[in-house]
Design a protein that fits this description.
With 104 residues, the protein is an all-alpha fold. It has three helices and no strands. The longest helix is centred in the last third of the chain and has 39 residues, at 65-103. 71% of the residues lie in helices and 0% in strands.
């Protein structure tokens, strides 16, 4: 029970409840999966669902922009690390092959 001098909490206005965008949730889940169980496919899914979610959230009043952004960040960082890893792999073994061909 509220004291008499305390104002009542505001009542919700009918029709103003917003839901969380499902694509935003999917983006975050795929971004986490991209770092753990399904590395490359999860990251690509996080990026796709993240962009779809942010586009829908701009058009409709929904929540979940932060979830979509987190999924996008996780996805893009994972993809960047994959690219750097593949590049390092080819540079290392390409340099090793070059050194071996010079010594032969």
């Amino acid at each position: 029970m509220l004291p008499p001098d305390h104002p009542a909490p505001p009542s919700p206005i009918a029709g103003t409840t917003t839901s969380t965008n499902g694509y935003a949730v999917a983006s975050l889940v795929m971004g986490i999966l991209g770092w753990s169980m399904i590395p490359l496919l999860g990251s690509i899914g996080a990026i796709v669902f993240g962009h779809l979610a942010r586009a829908q959230i701009r058009r409709q009043p929904q929540q979940g922009d932060g979830l979509a952004l987190a999924g996008l960040i996780l996805g893009w960082i994972s993809i960047a690390l994959w690219i750097l890893g593949i590049l390092a792999f080819f540079l290392f073994f390409g340099g090793l092959a070059m050194l071996l061909s010079l010594n032969a």
